[in-house]
Specification:
Elements lengths: L1 H11 L1 E10 L10 H12 L4 E4 L19 H14 L7 E3 L5 E10 L1 H13 L4 E5 L10 H12 L3 E6 L2 H9 L8 E3 L25 E7 L11 H14 L3 E7 L15 E5 L6 H5 L4 E4 L18 H5 L3 E5 L14 E3 L3 H12 L2 H18 L2 H19 L1
Parallel strand pairs: 1-2, 1-4, 2-3, 4-5, 5-6, 6-7, 8-9, 8-11, 9-10, 11-12, 12-13
Amino acid sequence: MIKTLLQKAIFKRTVVEEIVVIDSVLPNRDAVGPRNSDLLEFARKLPNFKYFTMYPMEPGTEAWFAHGYGMSKEAFRSNLPDYIKKYPETKGKVRYLSEKKKYSIKLAYTYFLAETYTLLPFLEKHHIPFVFLLNPGGAFGFNNESSDNMLRKIFASPYFKSVIVNQKLLQSYLEDSKLCGKEDVVYDFTGSVQFKPGDVKPKKYFKKNKETFDICFVAAKYSPKGVDKGYDLFIEAAHHLAKYRSDIRFHVVGGFDEKEIDVTAIKNVITFYGYLSPAALPEFYAKMDIFMSPNRPFKLYDGNSDGFPLSAGAMYCGVCGFNADELNMNTEFKQNEVVIIETQTKDIVEKVKYYYTHLDRLYDISKKGQKKAQKFYDIEEHIDRRIKLFKKLIEANS
């Protein structure tokens, strides 16, 4: 009798799920980005889907970083009501991991190297098969010994099932360095942005229905002067271009303000917005002519990179992407769909001047780039492919 009651008690503490995402960033009051888009689409397409928020976890000894990942239970409880109010379709689908419960999960999906590595002891403790998305960033570094060691530990886990990469260079690196078997690497360039076609606003054109030529820089701040994202180059170029034509305007969205780099000389032609909500971005992008992304690799830590293109969301909304690509990651966009820039002020200025005087070519690239971006970043097709892979892995593991 006592044994039976004990078994029932243990069963009640066991959480049984099929496909879940385990992550650290949601819920929050200002949810933005691809991970939030993924959650919403998974919730819509998978009736039994759950998103589990990590409790605070510390990384292992292979990590080069010391900070942990996860959210306190207090923060989770505080954020959840506002998140559900904003996204009612997630009600009942966002849960908090418990250190006191046992989990029986057929497949977990995680993001980035650092979070997946930090989560690994939990996954192994509960015998949870997992697949993860290895994006540039997130503590991954090319020829970074610590990054390689973290990857080796993940790939050696008996519960590792597959790694998804969205850059050919990442696929080649994993395979050529023998970190992972070719059969376990899934290349999928496509991803998700924060928008669907219905979110895109009618584009405004310079000299047609607006009087200014508008260039934007959109990025979070991770380094002084934003050298990793090329914010310093953007500001240098802005000083030159402001002297070239009085109708060119500059727009900064994200973690930078007028104090980061002196903009006194161009204060009348530059606007700082801070962070904008996903709902506000389509209206903002409708007025932009160029999205400037002169990002540089290897600035944050050894082997760091951003991937390509950082302008995906803006291109999706019809803005011409001006992207640096020092590692030659671009394998999908043609020359008439995106503008490749060097991480040099002179090159940036010259190319902006050229397209300022050749608006027909600029807007032709905008239209073709938008068409390609909306094809690659179709959230429904993207999630359909993920679900197909997940079900394949579950079946293979049965």
